[in-house]
Write a structure and sequence with these properties.
By secondary structure, the chain is an alpha/beta fold. The chain folds into 5 domains: about 120 residues, Rossmann fold; about 100 residues, Glutamyl-tRNA Synthetase, Domain 3 (Glutamyl-tRNA Synthetase, domain 3, Alpha-Beta Complex); about 70 residues, Glutamyl-trna Synthetase, Domain 2 (Glutamyl-tRNA Synthetase, domain 2); about 40 residues, no CATH class; about 80 residues. About 45% of the residues lie in helices and about 10% in strands. The chain contains 18 helices and 12 strands. It has a 3-stranded parallel sheet. Strands 4-5-8 form a 3-stranded antiparallel sheet. A two-stranded antiparallel ribbon has the order 6-7. α6 packs across α7. It is elongated and about 105 Å long. The protein starts with a strand and ends with a helix. Keywords: Aminoacyl-tRNA synthetase, ATP-binding, Cytoplasm, Ligase, Nucleotide-binding, Protein biosynthesis. This is Glutamate--tRNA ligase. It comes from Henriciella pelagia.
Length: about 450
């Protein structure tokens, strides 16, 4: 097999979210696993909505994730090539001017549906004489340009969906150029794929219906259509539409929340596949696992709980050196190894250490129930003398158990609530020395 050349083609009109990243990742894993190339194509033909700031952020996010590209280019620098391709299609009689307004097209669709026919464009523009076209343009109308489909059946073997076919007589001739002269996605994408030697187009299954037209455009321009793989789209944990969630799942937001790149990549690489969802430490490990045959046909369910669980697994294994700068930003006192080793098993992100830093080094509101007040007073009297160490908790609770008869939750929970202000948290034996005698006595004195 020839080493694949793939492309990821984001539009710099918004932020990079998990849906985009999943497409980029699948392309990257496939290419790198086969020793191929990953090209970043910036689809900025929409010059009004595209911004350099979004482009820079997309590149920064991909770099943060480790999805480095072998080459990159912007579509906005290739309009002359797109114009030449359009001229070639016109000369071949495959690109024709149409003058219907949006309202007129909508009316035609409704009439077709009311008569039980598919809402396919009727190609009436092909019957216009030069005089009729001139009259329409004199009225101020500007044409949009449609590609004339062959009406034949286009077939391909999809790497995910298996054998696929589109009867191009059952779909409308696609618009390639708008009334204002701007290009829609289709023609520039085909031109670029031919120029870049793209061997595989890997994208979401919402593009399946476009494939028949695109394959015919490849052939008309003298190119060979790449192999294709259309992956199921993401849905939420309940199987519902995912689009409403994307605003909170862009890379900048996830990074700011302390979600690690390999948690994101490990989840997105395994969603919708036959592999278990579990952490991989490197992209190379994910690439070694990748195979299109593992991708199922059902929608891929994205559950943020899975993302947090994977992130927690990574956080629990992080060394102090890896997190000390983040801990210092939380609290200067928290930037010590004993604290991190005491709390990391209770953190899904490094930022989750903040409340524990407050417990260890700050002032917290003790939680002491009325029925536990006498017990807490007894506990203060029985606190072992001298330096508080890792053995102090065991010695202290043993003495309390013997003196009061309490055991289990009735013994440990009142102490945890009084000392930490919480019902859950790090092991008390490890957190107690960090709190220190002075703070322990002060918190117990609130009984």
């Amino acid at each position: 097999m020839t080493s694949p050349i793939v492309r990821f083609a984001p539009s710099p009109t918004g932020k990079l979210h998990v849906g985009n990243v999943r497409t980029a990742l699948i392309n990257w894993l496939f290419a790198k696993g086969q020793g191929g190339k990953f090209i970043l194509r910036v689809d900025d033909t929409d010059t009004e909505r595209s911004t350099k700031a979004y482009e820079d952020q997309i590149k920064a996010d991909l770099t943060w994730l480790g999805l480095e590209w072998d080459d990159t280019f912007n579509q906005s620098g290739k309009f002359a090539q797109y114009d030449a391709a359009a001229d070639k299609l016109r000369e071949m009689g495959l690109l024709y001017a149409a003058y219907e307004t949006a309202d007129e097209l909508d009316r035609k669709r409704k009439i077709a549906l009311s008569r039980g026919r598919p809402p396919v464009y009727d190609r009436s523009a092909l019957n216009l004489s030069d005089e009729e076209k001139a009259k329409l343009e004199a009225e101020g109308r500007k044409p949009h340009w449609r590609f004339k489909l062959s009406g034949n059946r286009v077939e391909w073997k999809d790497l995910v969906r298996g054998p696929q076919s589109i009867d191009t007589s059952s779909v409308s001739d696609p618009v390639l150029i708008r009334e204002d002269g701007s290009y829609l996605y289709t023609l520039p994408s085909v031109v670029d794929d031919i120029d870049a030697g793209i061997t595989h187009v890997v994208r979401g299954e919402d593009h399946v219906t476009n494939s028949g037209a695109q394959i015919e455009i490849f052939r008309a321009l003298g190119g060979t259509a790449p192999e294709m793989a259309h992956t199921p789209l993401l849905v939420d944990a309940e199987g519902g539409a995912f689009s409403k969630r994307l605003g909170s799942l862009d890379m900048g937001t996830l990074n700011g929340r302390g979600i690690l790149p390999m948690a994101i990549l490990s989840l997105l690489a395994k969603l919708g596949t036959s592999d278990n969802i579990e952490v991989r430490e490197t992209l190379d490990a994910l690439a070694a696992d990748f195979d299109f045959s593992k991708i199922g046909r059902a929608p891929a369910k994205f559950d943020e709980r899975d993302l947090l669980a994977l992130n927690a697994t990574l956080v629990h294994a992080m060394s102090f050196d890896a997190v000390k700068d983040q801990l210092a930003a939380i609290s200067p006192e928290a930037a010590n190894e004993a604290f991190w080793m005491a709390v990391r098993e209770n953190c899904q992100t490094v930022q989750d250490a903040k409340p524990f830093a407050d417990i260890a080094y700050g002032r917290i509101e003790s939680l002491i129930d009325d029925e536990d007040a006498a017990f807490i007073a007894e506990a203060k009297m029985l606190l072992p003398a001298g330096e508080v160490t890792g053995e102090s908790w065991g010695d202290w609770t043993s003495a309390l158990k013997e003196k009061t008869g309490r055991k289990g939750r009735g013994l440990f929970m009142p102490l945890r609530k009084a000392l930490t202000g919480q019902e859950h948290g790090p092991d008390m034996g490890t957190i107690l020395p960090l709190i220190g005698r002075e703070a322990i006595e002060r918190r117990l004195s609130r009984a």
